[in-house]
Design a protein that fits this description.
CATH class of the largest domain: Alpha Beta
Order of helices and strands: HEEEHEHHEHEHHEHHEEHEHEHEHHEHHE
Shape: globular
Strand order of the largest sheet: 5-4-3-6-7
CATH topology of the largest domain: Rossmann fold
Largest sheet: 5 strands, parallel
Helix content: 40-55%
Radius of gyration: 24 Å
Keywords: Signal
Protein name: Iron complex transport system substrate-binding protein
Strand content: 5-15%
């Protein structure tokens, strides 16, 4: 009888242990099925501990979801933030010094990417940009990752930001198990966007100024110009109460245009984009917007751009409607701030009470682990 009782006890204990281990394994390996912004149905590990981001500037969006430490689960990235937005990189580095040793894999769509190293790290999810979907498909990287048990998820803050920002943030919220944070930011984002939309609806088409966007103005000195079509910043101009010059001229995302075409049309407003590219290209004459920018230098750089040969004859320069804005707004969920600046430049009376500076500060106070500093947009001072 005693032996039988002991046997039953051991069996019960073994069964309990087996159930416990099995349950723990299931809990650790819980997966969810999501549809990414490319329309792909993906089975992905919920709350992954190790992710790789195909572009470093995805941190802009991850930060509003993983608010305490957006780098906590990132084991590798492309070093574009380090090169092209060093102000932001240093801001995060000060708060999270461990990112100095973060592995850089380069572009996941090129031969430089070390797939073996990505897999060896135990990566569970790789996040990629929608704009590179075709490259990823052609390279076969998606299939190779899937064969290794690594999910790929596409997000978008660049191709079609006004439509894909909320779905992308919600997607990250589900995968990271941070849905409350994703919901809070999505609500805030939509509130800020509707502040613009509700007023733009009142503006007749004929009262909407033609705006030329000069992408990366001065990045390469004496080279002009790249601009956006009815996408990205071009679309943001259209939705902020203007008529984007590129939207009226060509289909597609972005293209090169001649100075002659710009001078011939003499757009009412000109908006360049800039960032701290001085480390990537020491010769740049761009406006060095970012967390370390200073107002005096911004004005100095704007003056230099407006003084390029022939530009001083343009109406936008003469009338003080020559502006510039932080280039990285074009690839982040913070673009509503740029839209508020656009709206004020185009329709100052209608948007008199809108304060993009206050919005930028509020964004940092509510959703980001870093504090607000620097300069992110500016206008030419024709009286100075």
């Amino acid at each position: 009888m005693k032996v039988s009782t002991l046997t039953r006890g051991l069996c019960s204990a073994a069964a309990a242990m087996t159930f416990s281990v099995t349950s723990a394994t299931i809990a650790l390996a819980e997966t969810i099925t999501v549809t990414d912004v490319a329309g792909r149905v993906v089975e992905v590990e919920k709350n992954p501990s190790k992710i790789v981001i195909g572009e470093g500037r995805m941190i802009y969006s991850i930060a509003v979801v993983d608010q305490e430490n957006p780098f906590e689960r990132v084991v590798g990235w492309k070093d574009d933030m380090v090169k092209y937005d060093p102000d932001a990189y240093r801001k995060y580095l000060e708060k999270f010094p461990e990112i100095a040793s973060l592995k850089s894999f380069g572009s996941p769509y090129s031969d430089e990417w070390n797939l073996e190293a990505v897999i060896t790290l135990g990566t569970e999810v790789v996040f990629m940009n929608l704009g590179n979907l075709l490259k990823a498909q052609e390279s076969g990287i998606i299939e190779k990752l899937e064969e290794a048990g690594v999910a790929t998820v596409f997000v978008d803050f660049r191709q079609n930001p006004t439509e894909n920002t909320v779905p992308s943030i919600q997607l990250m919220g589900r995968i990271f198990d941070k849905r409350d944070n994703a919901d809070a930011f999505s609500d805030y984002y939509q509130q800020q966007m509707k502040l613009i939309y509700s007023r733009v609806e009142q503006i007749p088409v004929e009262d909407r100024p033609v705006v030329f966007i000069e992408s990366a103005a001065g990045y390469n000195p004496n080279k002009c110009c790249n601009t956006f079509g009815a996408a990205n910043l071009g679309r943001l101009v259209d939705m902020s109460g203007g008529r984007n010059w590129g939207s009226l001229k060509f289909p597609g995302f972005r293209t090169s245009v001649s100075l002659e075409a710009i001078f011939a049309d003499d757009p009412e407003i000109i908006i360049g984009t800039g960032a701290n590219w001085s480390e990537a290209n020491p010769a740049t004459t761009a406006v060095l917007f970012g967390y370390e920018a200073e107002q005096a230098q911004v004005q100095e750089r704007l003056t230099a751009l407006a003084s390029r040969e022939g530009w001083g004859e343009l109406s936008a320069v003469k009338n003080g409607r020559f502006h510039s804005v932080y280039h990285q707004f074009y690839n982040s969920p913070y673009h509503f701030v740029a839209m508020q600046a656009f709206a004020k430049w185009m329709h100052p009376e209608l948007f008199e009470d809108v304060d993009p500076e206050a919005s930028m500060k509020e964004l940092h106070d509510k959703f980001l682990p870093i504090d607000y500093s620097g300069v992110f947009w500016g206008s030419l001072d024709v009286g100075g």
